[in-house]
Write a structure and sequence with these properties.
Low-confidence stretches: 1-40
Largest sheet: 6 strands, antiparallel
Number of helices: 13
Number of strands: 25
Oligomer: single chain
Strand content: 15-25%
Radius of gyration: 23 Å
Mean pLDDT: 89
Length: 455
């Protein structure tokens, strides 16, 4: 897998890293990031520039920053129990110590009361100076305890010299954000291989069924093996693959190497009957205008393929929806208390007047689900494929911690146009048309065939 590509949940921080110049040796230390890191009260600060390339190690103060940041800035922070945050932090902290053979006698959770300041003081008294690696694990564990698919802590790193690296396996049938879909059914198969990558050169092809990864089975019974995630993102991975068209089984060893820069662009083609097909890999900046430009010459209908689209900007969603309807609510952003704010179609966009079919799958997440739900709820078109990911808790805001890491926290909750919860559930399709391993291997597309049949 490619480790240098930003997932949807990290889009904001990745965009900042990509678009704001990093400080040079001649630059003063008064950049927004440097100022934020030196905040006199030790609070986390809204990220406005790339984190510094070098930063001090993680300390107990960094952990406190993260603790306070969650309570002050997370959507439900004011209603969270500080005891639970600190419990999750200590659980991850002690597990990391045990992995390192450095567990400490007497290290346990102190009596906590629910008072955030008093509980922190008691917790810090137990931790003492702390171990930097275990403290990083504690922050990760505390954020993971929120069980929020758009909350994460990350340490941005500059792209490696010579461009991104990886094995070139860019898609799996069970992929769902940073994990594998717990609802996935056997078999696990490869959906996308980057051209001229190590996987491509080894003869790995879309549709190849993954039997084992480093000797581990892809499924335990009917449940996908989540341990495969780490194996797929390692520098070297050994895959046992079955080609569905021939039944041939072989084992290949892939070692990470250079892979080409992946251009973020919309592609299109004209299908029989005057239907225009548009593939949208993500709702990146400018994606909506690229789609609209592709559709301006269409005369009958459009198929917008969002399969594998991990999300992006809500603004791109409302702009693209404005090409199909005006005056519609596309979603709601809701605070913990108070009125939800409606998001609406961008009515400055001229209407295209086209019939619409949208192709979705379980890798359609975040802003992709925002678009899909708006199409379905407002009657703008038909959804074909499979239910979306259900990974749309709310847009994340990035906050800088003093060790250079970035904490991503949603400040609002997303609801669909009918005020329905989509997060963890996904958007159901109107017509079920899953892609199989054999379909991919043969080059057939049941979802697109169904879409053409409807149009």
């Amino acid at each position: 897998m490619i480790r240098t590509v930003c997932s949807a949940v990290l889009a904001t921080a990745c965009a900042l890293t990509a678009t704001v110049p990093a400080p040079t040796a001649a630059t003063t230390t008064t950049t927004p990031a440097a100022t934020a890191a030196a905040s006199p009260d030790g609070a986390c600060a809204r990220l406005t520039a790339p984190p510094p390339e070098s930063a001090p190690p993680t300390t107990v103060d960094t952990l406190r920053q993260a603790y306070e940041c969650v309570l002050d800035n997370y959507y439900s922070g004011p209603a969270l129990d500080p005891k639970v945050l600190l419990r999750d932090a200590l659980a991850a902290y002690t597990q990391e110590l045990m992995r390192r053979g450095a567990d400490a006698a007497g290290l346990g959770l102190p009596a906590l009361t629910g008072n955030r300041d008093a509980d922190w003081a008691a917790f810090a008294g137990v931790i003492g100076a702390g171990h930097p690696d275990a403290l990083r694990a504690a922050i990760t564990g505390m954020v993971a305890g929120l069980h929020d698919n758009h909350a994460r802590v990350m340490r941005p790193t500059p792209p490696p010299e010579g461009g991104p690296t990886g094995t070139g396996i860019a898609g799996l049938s069970a992929a769902q954000g940073p994990q594998l879909d717990p609802a996935a059914r056997p078999p696990l198969f490869i959906t996308r291989v980057l051209p001229r990558s190590p996987a491509d050169r080894a003869g790995v092809r879309p549709g190849d069924i993954v039997v084992e990864v480093d000797g581990m089975p892809a499924f335990f019974g009917d449940k996908v093996n989540q341990s495969l995630v780490e194996a797929f993102t390692s520098d070297t991975v050994r895959l046992t693959l079955k080609r569905p068209t021939t039944g041939r089984v072989r084992t290949v060893k892939l070692t990470a190497g250079p892979v080409g820069e992946q251009e973020r662009s919309v592609t299109s083609k004209t299908l029989p009957g005057g239907v225009t097909y548009v593939k949208v890999p993500g709702f990146f900046e400018g994606a909506a205008d690229q789609v609209i430009a592709k559709l301006k010459g269409a005369t009958k209908a459009a198929v917008i393929d969002l399969r594998g689209n991990g999300g992006g900007s809500p603004r791109e969603v409302t702009r693209l929806l404005g090409a199909f309807a005006h005056g519609k609510v596309t979603s709601y952003f809701c605070p913990l208390k108070g009125e939800c704010a409606p998001n609406r179609t961008d009515d400055t966009v001229p209407l295209l007047g086209l019939r619409l079919v949208v192709l979705t799958d379980r890798a359609c997440a975040s802003a992709c689900e925002d678009f899909s739900a708006a199409v379905k709820d407002n009657g703008l078109g038909t959804l074909v494929g499979t239910r979306t990911a259900g990974a749309i808790s709310g847009p994340s805001e990035p906050y800088l911690l003093d060790d250079g890491s970035v904490l991503l926290l949603p400040k609002v909750r997303h609801l669909g146009p009918a005020r329905e919860t989509i997060d963890t559930i996904g958007v159901p399709v109107d017509h079920y048309a899953p892609m199989t391993a054999l379909d991919l291997a043969k080059g057939s597309d049941p979802g697109l065939a169904k879409a053409l049949g409807l149009l």
